[in-house]
Structures are given as C-alpha cells and as structure tokens.
Amino acid sequence: MAEKKNSGVINTSFPLKGMGNTLYIVKIGGNIIDDEQKLEHFLKQFAAIGTKKILVHGGGKLATKLAEQMKVPQRMIEGRRITDAETLKIVTMVYAGYINKNIVAQLQALECNAIGISGADGNAILAHKRTSKNNSPGNVAIDYGFAGDIDNINIPLFQSLLEQSISLVIAPITHDKKGQLLNTNADTIAQEIAKGLSGCFDVTLIYSFEKEGVLLDANDDNSVIREIDPGSYKDLKQKQLVFAGMIPKLDNAFSALQSGVKKVIIGKAENLHDLIKGTSGTTIVNE
What we know:
Elements: E1 22-28, H1 30-33, H2 36-47, E2 52-57, H3 62-69, E3 76-77, E4 80-81, H4 85-109, E5 114-117, E6 125-133, E7 141-153, H5 155-163, E8 167-170, E9 173-175, E10 181-183, H6 186-197, E11 202-208, E12 227-228, H7 230-238, H8 247-258, E13 263-267, H9 272-277, E14 282-284
Parallel strand pairs: 1-2, 1-11, 2-8, 5-8, 11-13, 12-14
Antiparallel strand pairs: 3-4, 6-7, 9-10, 13-14
Helix pairs in contact: 3-4, 6-8
C-alpha cells in the first residue's frame, strides 16, 4: 500500500490529480436529494473530484410521501423515524432502490464509474436493532422499530472497490447478518466509514446541510467560522457562541478526528469544490 501523504489544505483547481491515497467521504441529505437541480449541480462537482470518493445519502421526503400514498402511518420521536415493518419496506425501496440507483445513473452519465450499495451488499455494514431509553418517568424504553446502530464496517470490501477506481454510493440501509434489514442514520454511516477507512487513506469527511457552515449567528450566513480546532471549540462553547443544535455535530466531528480522520468539513453541498479548497464552509481540525 502506498505511503499516506498529507493532503493539507487543497489549493488547486478541479479535477484533483496526483492524490492517489486521498479519500473524500461526502454525506448529503434531503435538501439536496429533494431538489433535482441542486442534486444535478452537486453530482457534477462530486464526479469531478479526481481521487477516491464515497457518497453517503439520506432519504429526503420521498419515503414519507410514498408512505402517505400507501396509507402507512409514520411516527417520529425526538426527530427520529420509528421504522415499523411496513415503513422498513418503504425506506428500503426508496433509499436503497430509487434514490441510490438514480444517483448512480447520473454519475455514470458524468463518466464517473460508481456502484450503489446498502449495508447488506457484500456484508458492507453490520448493525444491531436499536433500543433506547427516554427521560420520561420510569425511564421507559423506546422501541424504534427496525432502526440500526452500527457494529462493523467491512473495510476490505470498501478498500478493494476504491482501489479499482470505483466511486461508492451508500444507501442508509444496514443489516444484522441474521436476515434482518435495518434503517440507519446516514450521518452515522458516513462517520463510521470515515473512521474505518482512516487506516488505509487520508480521509476528509464532508457533512453537508442547509447552512454555509458553523455560524456565530444562526440567522447570519456571513458569520461562518472558517476553522475550528479543539482549543477554539472549547472557547466557543464556554462563551456560548455556538448554537446548541451544532454541538452534537461538532462533537461527532472531533470524535472522527480522534479516530484517525484527517479533517471534517461542514457546509453546503452546492459548494462542494469550495468546501474542499477551504474557501467555503467550516473546517474542523485536530491541531
């Protein structure tokens, strides 16, 4: 295996060349998936990255829309979907089926050779059925249905495909190796893949969401914090300059860095090239 190289801050124009051991893992959500024009624009940028890359996608609104058409009730607890047996069928069809293969087809049209997989394919992502407890009186356990928490990433499988210059498109469906599919959070999938592959590649993990980056003022897109390291993060939290909704994302980012990920970038997927160049979004570093 080639010696790992320090990718540093990218200051070249696309497509990136000569970066054989660099891996970009990009997670996109419903704000991109649900908008055909935004998705098309993003995929053109993703396809132009001239090094190894993985795209992890969420589900968007299509699963909920289809569930309504099929008269399958949907329940949410604390923003998390309760995945009952009928809902599992729907999210599998939508996430691992239409959305995943639509993205792959568009990438092929852009001459980006891609394979779309779920966690069950090639035993890629092993998980277990989630159980959790809430803070209600009696600490009653919540049954999230067929929601999965990750146990293992099949690193040799991912490494083998990437070394063949195949870009991967990952649907947020995992399995328990007992024949049961599980609906799993796409952010978590991206993070765990990034951690697992950090021993093989120089990994940059990119989380996209609707804001320009981590903001000092949640209502001002011009207040982006360009770089955060552990010291500045501690200071921002002490001064309460980071709004509460970003703290879990940043905690997860630093957890990924501590597990070997090179850096984490947070910003808009529409600005993917600029995020990688460091001229957009927020870069989280461990030094």
